[in-house]
Protein 1
Amino acid sequence: MESHALDPSLPGVRQLQDWIRERTPLQLQLIDGTALGGCLYWQDPEFLALKTSPEAPLLLMGRRAVALIRPLG
Amino acid sequence: MESHALDPSLPGVRQLQDWIRERTPLQLQLIDGTALGGCLYWQDPEFLALKTSPEAPLLLMGRRAVALIRPLG
Amino acid sequence: MESHALDPSLPGVRQLQDWIRERTPLQLQLIDGTALGGCLYWQDPEFLALKTSPEAPLLLMGRRAVALIRPLG
Amino acid sequence: MESHALDPSLPGVRQLQDWIRERTPLQLQLIDGTALGGCLYWQDPEFLALKTSPEAPLLLMGRRAVALIRPLG
Amino acid sequence: MESHALDPSLPGVRQLQDWIRERTPLQLQLIDGTALGGCLYWQDPEFLALKTSPEAPLLLMGRRAVALIRPLG
Amino acid sequence: MESHALDPSLPGVRQLQDWIRERTPLQLQLIDGTALGGCLYWQDPEFLALKTSPEAPLLLMGRRAVALIRPLG
């Protein structure tokens, strides 16, 4: 587990925070090629929490497994 | 091995802890694409412990190898 | 998350900074084989931010997932 | 190389230690999908040492490459 | 990003430095199986800089993504 | 780059050192599935140095990319 705190001065952390606050629809691609669409709900140093639809349960995506995040639409 | 202690203030650690306490049926996907269904029994900084059924033995899943965890059903 | 600050004395950080400043068209290859063309807009210790065209939204590429970056043209 | 010492208070380290002491037959799956059956002989922070049969030589498995360990039988 | 300085007492750093100084033609294989031929120009803790031919632009190869480096010829 | 020194008290480091000293023929498998046969010449925290035959040049194998090492024969 990565126990470092998130550093809010980093542009990546801030960009993710913006996408979380605005519930921006995103496509997230993992390093195994899996792609998922949805909105982010929170980030911590180890995971991103995602819902693929508003009524879906939260799912956790390993931050180390993230290859690419891009806004949809 | 990751020797950092788990930080219970992180939402990812707490979410996993909730799933462990409630024995939530989960699908866990590894970065090689392997997917497994089951319930979590404990977490530590290196592994998640999973049973694919209540009478099955515990198996260990490398935390670094986790790509995605999602509740089933 | 990698919380180390970027070290501007490293040639890799400086090379990326040059490509960012000059908006050099690049091909970026991830460790899953995904390749993307575009220009870099910023770097932080965890992500590179890329636009595939000037009017496209920023996308984030996990720095650990980068296998190869090469100038195009 | 991971130079941290193993922390015997972690349940993952203890579970592995149990399997080592009891020579539990295990299936070990690596993140490239390779699966091997055998018993563990020792663990250190970088490797697990495995024999696929009692008279086979020890082989080393990179701890970071472990995706899944499950008891057989 | 790896912010550790390179340690010139390590044989791997020295071997790479020799190949850089002598412009030894090398084959570099990444963990996704991509192979590239060329000469190294510098190393830092995060990247190796490579030219596939003397007039080609520098390209950056993620050090964590390197599986194998072997001299050609 | 891993800048930690090798810890000779670890059984994995010692096992590798034995194989280096005795020039034990080994099969080394990387996490992308590549397999190579040869003898080890040295280890450092980032790389293992291998010759596939006594007259071949040294090649470097990223320690993080190692999935499995097993003696041949």
Protein 2
Amino acid sequence: MGLVVQKYGGSSVADAEGIKRVAKRIVEAKKNGHQVVVVVSAMGDTTDELIDLAEQVSPIPAGREFDMLLTAGERISMALLAMAIKNLGHEAQSFTGSQAGVITDSVHNKARIIDVTPGRIRTALDEGNIAIVAGFQGVSADSKDITTLGRGGSDTTAVALAAALDAEVCEIYTDVDGVFTADPRVVKKARKIDWISSEDMLELAASGSKVLLHRCVEYARRYNIPIHVRSSFSGLRGTWVSNEKPQGDEQVEHAIISGVAHDVSEAKVTVVGVPDKPGEAAAIFRAIADAEINIDMIVQNVSAASTGLTDISFTLPKTEGAKAIDALEKAKASIGFESLRYDDQIGKISLVGAGMKTNPGVTAAFFQALSDAGVNIELISTSEIRISVVTRQDDVNEAVRAVHTAFGLDSDSDEAVVYGGTGR
Amino acid sequence: MGLVVQKYGGSSVADAEGIKRVAKRIVEAKKNGHQVVVVVSAMGDTTDELIDLAEQVSPIPAGREFDMLLTAGERISMALLAMAIKNLGHEAQSFTGSQAGVITDSVHNKARIIDVTPGRIRTALDEGNIAIVAGFQGVSADSKDITTLGRGGSDTTAVALAAALDAEVCEIYTDVDGVFTADPRVVKKARKIDWISSEDMLELAASGSKVLLHRCVEYARRYNIPIHVRSSFSGLRGTWVSNEKPQGDEQVEHAIISGVAHDVSEAKVTVVGVPDKPGEAAAIFRAIADAEINIDMIVQNVSAASTGLTDISFTLPKTEGAKAIDALEKAKASIGFESLRYDDQIGKISLVGAGMKTNPGVTAAFFQALSDAGVNIELISTSEIRISVVTRQDDVNEAVRAVHTAFGLDSDSDEAVVYGGTGR
């Protein structure tokens, strides 16, 4: 029996009852002979309440102090969890990110982990303790200031600790049963996935699946740490995410298609009337990059020969929309385009699966399904194991259901889709 | 203009409005040319709410984890205060006890400061920042665990930092105007004291005055740090506490009597029928000391020659009463007393003033005032600059008022007491 890292989110420890329930689950793992390291988020709404307080004293809370404030949240939940475990007769010690050796860069509010030195955790484990670690937080290598890892940071803490401690598995406990073939709120017949490759999970996360964040999966893939996403309420087997298909695991089959993801958090910017000559696209995207905006899909329309002008469209998070428009307007004179169009009524549907590489009919079947559902496609983007399209936002749910059914992912259906002959 | 340390208690930073008000006061000190270090407690009821949560998950919260939990409180208030200051256009950085270099022993929930190494505070000040430090907390030298200093610990943090940073003054902001000649809730005519010697303040604190805690004053006296106790609401001059009378301070006169303190938090234990032979008292108080109970006054009654037995009484905090009875019952056979009496309906009245040393009539006038008020005295204890008596608890308020009036401390009175001729 080896070492397991368990991560519990805010909804699992929302109140004293939740904390006691989680404590029992942790003690169970310990009784089964494991060394147990637990990463915990702030209780329920604590973080939102702290943000609210911050906004009352300062309209634009400062980075360093904002991190100092927010990290109070996990301090509360982790200490309470340690107390609840001790109350069950087991030894537990809680550690802040800094005490656990989570070393980050100095970018407040969204720091990146650059090293993990879990000496104190090792010692605590060797002395028979269950170690409880604050998720989401670290300490900067340069200034020794407290940092936070940004949204979903606790998952990253868990995976990083699992890697540093060479854990058998990193269990991510949440309020759903695992990763599904589509968002169950949209697709009633979505199936829980028993196993998914890290590669496919990365694409799902990048395409709008909310269960695991991209950088957490990336970290796990790099250090070859299996993740087990499961419910803290049911205790059922959830979804395993790993680089290789687990040997001897009967429940696992390597699906051609892993799932359908969708994302309605993006907007589309179209730069109209760009002179069709070398360097124009570069100038546009340099202006965007200088404003530190990450973009997703890019499409350049075919140039109209008569005018020598073309349009360039790209998608980006809605939250970055205003910043992008501002950056482009400022660079308008030097770039020399005609006008800007902004559209936040778009949605993205993505089909993900490593099987695409070797099943040439997937793309055709995907477009056929969308066409049959009467969904118009505005942009297309593909990778080795993913196809994404942009549609009207109103069409997204219908499109996801149509694709999910067409690829035989519905839980009641025994029929698999028959792929056509022409490759994509 | 030198360095000032300001300490704000929980009632001063109870909500966002309070934090913004305090921020303005801090910025004012900075504008006046001072380097400013601020020690802050947890907001209003935060600590009580955290204790309540702890009790919900575990009936007896554990020391280490309890400290981890409680220290979340100052983390919140200090980060918010730093944000509020930055919002006023000044630079501020917050520091945990550990970051501020507050090194303690390892006794959780009531640690003692053993060293202060404020390197990061110095750097922050040199860079033009206002430094905000979490009160009440430190880090243990041995285990590097987070510790708390116990009740009133933030005052001690402030004085300790003032000493380590060689501050001009340690300002303790609170919700009263300063130290009074008696508790104003009991004595309507109590006067605010402009200056009081550290020595007298120590005796007042030991005798039940709640404004400053004993160990905070002791620390200030040892390192010769002047304390200024004042209201965070009025901004008026409060009470200065220092070893020497300030030179050239017109408002200050060295009073014969500093004030009247009272304490109804103690109980009296009487060990009845103790054999009157050498070593008996030692055996009793060794049993008490082994149980780590601090006692206050001790009186041994005159032995009745006929029986060879005597009674020994002592006072101690009511909270320690059960423990003391338990310890004595267990040692009954080896000590050989007859029975125990426990009385928690007592009160203590103390008169404090360095002038007692040279004014021999004080004791007589004190007893006369109590006698005139019809108050019966049960125990007496004296020091160089203090007389204390134990009475029935019901008599305490009346006794305090009578003594306060008799010694000319009432604010409306111009008459000073005339001391009698016989010494005490």
Protein 3
Amino acid sequence: MSFDWSKRGADKRIRLFHSIPEEWKLRTYYRRESNVFNIPTECGKLSAEELSITNSTASDLVEKLSRGELKAVDVTVAFCKRTTVAHQLVRCFHEFFPEKAIAQAKELDEYFEIHQKPIGPLHGLPISINDQFRIEGQEASMGRIAWLGKYDTTESTLITLLRKAGAVLYTKTSVCQTLLSGETCNNIIAVTSNPRNNAWSAGGSSGGGRCFDRTPRFSTWGGSVRVPAAFNFLYGIKPSQGRTPHSKMANSVEGQETAHSIIGPIAHTAADLRLFLKAVLSQEPWNYDPKVIPLPWRSSEEDIARSKVAGRLTLGYFYSDGVVNPYPPILRGIDEAVAKLRENGHTLIPWRPYKHAYAQRFVRIMYTADGNTGILNSLKASGELVIPYNKRLLRSTKGHLNANQLGEVQLKQWEYQRKYLERWRRFEEETGTELDAIIAPVAATAAIRHGKFRYYGYSSVISLLDFTSAVAEYDPEVYDGAPVGLQVIGRRLSEERILVIAEEIGRLLGNSQTP
Amino acid sequence: MSFDWSKRGADKRIRLFHSIPEEWKLRTYYRRESNVFNIPTECGKLSAEELSITNSTASDLVEKLSRGELKAVDVTVAFCKRTTVAHQLVRCFHEFFPEKAIAQAKELDEYFEIHQKPIGPLHGLPISINDQFRIEGQEASMGRIAWLGKYDTTESTLITLLRKAGAVLYTKTSVCQTLLSGETCNNIIAVTSNPRNNAWSAGGSSGGGRCFDRTPRFSTWGGSVRVPAAFNFLYGIKPSQGRTPHSKMANSVEGQETAHSIIGPIAHTAADLRLFLKAVLSQEPWNYDPKVIPLPWRSSEEDIARSKVAGRLTLGYFYSDGVVNPYPPILRGIDEAVAKLRENGHTLIPWRPYKHAYAQRFVRIMYTADGNTGILNSLKASGELVIPYNKRLLRSTKGHLNANQLGEVQLKQWEYQRKYLERWRRFEEETGTELDAIIAPVAATAAIRHGKFRYYGYSSVISLLDFTSAVAEYDPEVYDGAPVGLQVIGRRLSEERILVIAEEIGRLLGNSQTP
């Protein structure tokens, strides 16, 4: 019985392997330490057209699909193939259901045939989602053995809206055992590796939601969008709470209102992130999820940001949060962004981070307010081992808080947020201009070896503040090819503006078209 | 020692009495059961001009003040006088500081003299706030003996913004001992009575924030805006969470994120409510309080509602929530509103309330999640008696919830909200039109005798849903002159639309100009 969990994990691993059609299976073994980034191109499993499709941006694909120049089925097959290759190289999914995906794509093609127009703004675009989302008939194990074998009978709100918008669902990507992690490791797939180096982590908690192709992906919370984006040379945006729907999802601590789950996309370009957010908002998610704010995409906010990009942005920046100093490649990344922005006539002023160490105390308390009983019970249910990486985290728990204690923590959090806003306002009063964004590290390091991610502060404090934050990329060559991410932080619910600024920073750093 | 609390309450009561200048004190005794509504006019304390000022709408006053046709000092003195008369008749305030108010008004007049323009959209308008708001140098006892004698050194965010907008602060109105009440009763002022009948309650928890004059007032949570509005023939609006700032206020259960405090205005016309919300939003409260959504006043939403009012509104309505049937006057109120709206070409369709009894279980749990320790400790600190009205409420506590239990409640709440939205959507799918609002009772009764308010369900379930709700009035003559309120319920954050609809309903019921 005691090793039953291990068998169940192995069983799932095997089932995943069998979900890959025989003809898509790789016959070569790739050792650790190797860069497998180009294998999808070189392995011969994808045709030239399929490679072209899977190398396209989502925006390009949607345009062609909506004009009938591409068929949803062809695009779907191409992505299914590429994803299976990826999984065999870095173990990136927990669910894979190509038949359902192809059936859905066929329906979309039929719709197009009849109506000669797309069904919605994402017509025929395959989108991968992480394993927190529920899809009827699929498991949502979130990497926990106890939750294997439970097939969902309901669908997460975002999935419903993505389908309405025309997106094709085909895989659910890997997440960390506890979700609360900057890497992706569990007792089913072991680890999700970084395609640029198999010995590196792909980041987490939703490490599977990255790599190898250009479709947008969805992920959640804290650093779970930003860290994988940063570790994989991708763009990501963590919207503020209430911008995207997260109802009817699986989660680590359901129902808590202290540290909110937030869904955000990861993609290869800022334009694809925008495509994605606009498509979701066009479905009026506030009519489905009561936590979503009825705030349609505001083009007027984009226009303001664009005119500032063309004129003069006022940006704050910091190298270190005063707790853990980032590694030199990160510092160089900030330096380069600041220099390029100044060259282009923008105003850059150092920002003094306000009590980030203090803020992280809250983050820790908030993450563990239930004494980790939610996570621990779900692990105990199968008897599975806590992965080494999470032991430290789970040890740090201070035990269960009661309603009053929770209220005190939440009150202090609000007070901290308020003081941060006050700083922001004071900065503006002193400089006489609006502070458009703050540029900061996403993490203290670039992509790192499995099991070595330690410090969440750069992403978690921004989550605590509920600020909007987008990740743009700095040249990956500087640090053994390991991607280095910068975050562009805006006030709460400033997604439209922040994406424009992140796009500009990416452009200045020469990344806007990088694969 | 055991009766010390009683002395401290009496001391405060006397201090309040002494805060009234000698020449404003009434020399006549008014017995219970009497209608004192016209005393301010008849008592001879206010000049004809002062009566005219205090009978004006806030919108009229602001217009005249902003053109220099009225002086802030004269308006302030007039309101101070009228409020002192009111307090002597019904005991409606916890704080009164005319000298500070007049000094502030003088500064505004000087500003106008120099700049020949108003300082902000509320230039010179006296506004009363309830005792939850903090003002430097004043007590914020919230009707609790233990909190007497503590003079605030900080200011609530709303107060700061009101001052910036030009409003004059002069009094803090009475609230109930626990806040969680549909009446206003505590060991300082005893009860706040209804000016139409001294034996009736003025409603609560912020019963003091009503009566006798036409300035807007601010109040909070559950039925705390709507019930006093309904019991006093006033308009009120409970915005959705995140529309108005409530940081740095005193509260019953600070820091809890389960049942949110919400600030809303009470006034004599819908236009005055609008004036108020627009003025607050014009100060960009989201830059001060992190919980406020950056959502400026949307005239476009008003335009949509106005064109529907001129064309055809689709409205749901219900008489009873299926738990407690309202008294006949309330039913007649709904009937009349429905009939008048139909006569005017609008579509009225019965709405089936969804599980309101179930929802109220959550409300009870949420209100008492801390086992009422917050309230009980603040009462114990002085040893004061729990007012009879609140005993039942405090007995009903199920004890302290822990983080997991709280999470479960919050999850069910979210689920309930989601299902209610689904109903709303299904209604729209079935009828093929947008459901603009739902008309419903505010309470099961009209204004009632002190100590008799029992059933909160009509207001609290709408608060649980975080729907926007405005109160419009039905002819008070039908029920011995007791005001009967209707609420106009809109989806979350629909303040602009709901005010237009409430205004139209008030107009159809012939109330828009009623004092």
Protein 4
Amino acid sequence: MNGAESLIRSLIASGVDTCFTNPGTSEMHFVAALDHVPGMRSVLALFEGVATGAADGYYRMTGNPACTLLHLGPGLANGLANLHNAKKAGSGIVNIVGEHAESHLALDAPLKSDIQGLARPMSHWVHSATSAAEVGRDGAAAVTAARTAPGQIATLILPSDTAWSEGGPVVTAEPPAPRATVPSEAVVAAARALSGPRTLLLLGGQALTAANLDHAGRIAAKTGCALLSEWSNARLERGAGRVSIGRIPYPIDQALQVLEPFDRIVLVGARPPIGFFAYPGKPARLTRPDAEIIDLADWAADLDAVLDGLEQEAGAAGTTPLGLAEAAELPVPTGALTPETIGAALGATIPENAIVIDEAVTTGRSFFPVTAGAPPHSWINNRGGSIGYSLPVAIGCALACPDRKVLALSGDGSAMYTPQALWTMAREGLDVTVLIFANRSYQILRGELTNVGVQNPGPKALDMLSLDRPAIDWVGLAKSLGLEAYRVDEAGALTKAIETGLALDGPVLIEVVM
Amino acid sequence: MNGAESLIRSLIASGVDTCFTNPGTSEMHFVAALDHVPGMRSVLALFEGVATGAADGYYRMTGNPACTLLHLGPGLANGLANLHNAKKAGSGIVNIVGEHAESHLALDAPLKSDIQGLARPMSHWVHSATSAAEVGRDGAAAVTAARTAPGQIATLILPSDTAWSEGGPVVTAEPPAPRATVPSEAVVAAARALSGPRTLLLLGGQALTAANLDHAGRIAAKTGCALLSEWSNARLERGAGRVSIGRIPYPIDQALQVLEPFDRIVLVGARPPIGFFAYPGKPARLTRPDAEIIDLADWAADLDAVLDGLEQEAGAAGTTPLGLAEAAELPVPTGALTPETIGAALGATIPENAIVIDEAVTTGRSFFPVTAGAPPHSWINNRGGSIGYSLPVAIGCALACPDRKVLALSGDGSAMYTPQALWTMAREGLDVTVLIFANRSYQILRGELTNVGVQNPGPKALDMLSLDRPAIDWVGLAKSLGLEAYRVDEAGALTKAIETGLALDGPVLIEVVM
């Protein structure tokens, strides 16, 4: 058994059984070992950002890391943007990054680079294997790191000689440590602080499971406090019968307005609200300067226990949660495609147990309220802000949950960072319906020009935000990569196309011409 | 004048007048300033690896850096693979990477990351601007660094407040320092060492200009030494009437065989030959262990003077260069598409003054000899080994040399890393003919499996190297991004399609079905 095989066996023994790969020469022994070891599913991507984004989606739905297989420094580099998003979402991932054999590292080979240096900014844990005998142990340590709450990025660098030389023992990762508990006095004090509509319970991370939102809804019913989540959530459970929770808006002025009423904010798995960017003359912190922030529990803490405790301390046990969404039978919209009619089409079609991955950027800002009464579903946001995440994440979600329908909502600008994801969807026959909102511009930046104080942008500036020359034919692009695809320019047709896409088992792309 | 404007004016004053952009909110003041400052051409890319690769191509043809505009850490990360290639090719590039305003950096905003840490592995020079008043000076310093021989990667991180605050003076970069000279005693000794067919003059970098190859050809004629270049060259001048020079083969066994005869190797702008990767049981150094290596001049030295000096010292002045390629009127090939017939089609069609960018990987290994007698042209290789470089590099070449025809030769696997480049070609109406060799596999890795000692790879391993499920429709893909496109499966038709592509002024893609 060579090092590569001992590594794969250790990963499987540690519960990691899915690998998103884009290999090269230095990874060939790992690839060859896939045939000698049963139990590792290997999914090929044509670009590394697809592999890392898929691993992110996989973790969000399973709570268990997948691994990636990447080719030296440049291969890792291509995966970094979606590792950034995964890191900010608290997703656990084990990256296996091939490296030259030790004897080759002293030479300045073309593909030599500082892999550790590249890995560090987007990883919590980085290690270079030094011996084939230890590779199994290294793999198990990587899994242990990746499983550290809320989930971490672990990058194991694998010199090719540690893969091809005789390996050592198969090692199993430590069981995940229990999440940190929050002192009961803090919970008692926070429960007292939540009183009336000028207090806010701001939720994030594991606080957004259906059960925890039920706790929060009961706390709100009893104390009168408001509930909100952050703008971007790794995963939020919602839909009919669940407690419906709003999100702090992305646009800076709206965010300031929404948070202005609150004298006191209790954070459970959320961070003190700040602007996505700095804007001249506008505050970075979105809460009123005199507002009291009570940071009760960070995202790595045992939030189930915290919310249960808050409910008990608030005397809210047994009350009916506030904000339970009622099932809404929405009429099928007709007419021009606008953010509102698109939202209505989604509200009318989201099926029970769907996974919705939201990278709709400007078009999607109004989707949330109108879909609150759809059948129960999961809603996934980009917490890292690097666009090009939704199509790769959809792959990981679909592989993790083969019995659930996946809806990926993407702006056209965003989808062009990782269009290769479509090919992997076709190859794996994944049950994903992709909506591309083709407004043919970096529309968000038109608003941001104003927000950062640019008056009357000139033609060269606007040209850098325009994607209409040429207009991308998304139907042709999707078909070229093996997908079914449709183009719609009317709301009734969109509704029908979504239904058609969802009815099929394989991937479908719908170009929504704005 | 704000900081952004002072930066753009300083870049232009320093001779940098082309910017490959993929901006976001933190870069909006730079984008807005493009309308206030005449003289900066701004070219939009939909993925950052296209922008950095284009800047690489631009430098290879002009010897002058372009700049890129990238969005924070993840935007830079997406550009790193092609910065790696540019760095290994000795290309000078100025990266402008937006960053949060200083006041925002203390907060953990979604897009915050360690930009310096990400930049360092692929940059020679990294600096974070700290004051709007100094940004012009920082920009000039970046250009000075990028112009340091042979060409360096300079990354300037631009916090948004240094862009929007009142700027300082416009500053001009230092003129490039003269290249290092090589002591004449070393040249004299090397000239004496070159004698007979068991000595090799191995050339790289600036030694591969037409004039320097003439020197080399005369030295070979006089001394009887052999001439070779490295496998990958940043740019090689060749074709009818120029000294034809071979390249050390990529496959390890062939490379060892080609270098085996040589007792003595004189390096001029080249490095001691090593394998691209380490292979078990095979040497890393490709020269015979007892061969003498004379490292006369590295790639940053004044190679024009070195080769002129070698010619003088060898008494070769006035002799007719050995290996002058004769113009070859190649018959138009017919029949099945093989590496040989494709090479013949190229040999029959490469027009005078063309720029050929070679990322044909396995298919292209035989292209070189058969095209030696084509009209004079430039040949560009990937020196960094990170695939996905040819389409972006073609953009930079075409913009740098609007009067020259550009031929980009890419494997299908390689082209899928940066297909977004096609859109920028269409948008800019670039005169590029792209050939995609659709063998529907990572063909090179099938050979490498054997080279690294994997016997009888199993179905899972082979599946990770197969791109045929689904087969990518390259014609559909190219058309979806605004290009003319044709599919050919026969050598005569290929020849005709290349001629058609070259006759048009805009971009054309030809899918060559293998």
